[in-house]
Amino acid sequence: MWDIIRIVFYFIIIIGLIYLAARIFKRKIFQSGDGQYLQVIERMYFAPKRFLSLVRVKDRVILFSISEKRIQEVQTWALDEFEDFTKDNSTSSFPGYFKKYFEKYRRDDSENN
Fold this sequence. Notes:
Elements: H1 2-29, E1 38-47, E2 50-57, E3 60-66, E4 71-78, H2 83-87, H3 94-112
Antiparallel strand pairs: 1-2, 2-3, 3-4
């Protein structure tokens, strides 16, 4: 009886240590590394190892398309066009911003015609 209790106890200890190690390594590996001049604003995943990343670099915001084989710059904007993200990242969303962004340009196009 005591052998079973001891085995279960050690099993729980080992599982706990594995869980703790996984949490520590995950935190170190996936740290965003935000700094004074570089900040990952948001990522949008499409498939494993394929995503868009919105990055603030000093006074610009750059949209990158990232896949397993390459990283490509899609578009660059001035930082002042992204005030919502830089002030409060939790209230805005990446898809919501682009919907608003494209509606703005759609209105500009319709006014010019």
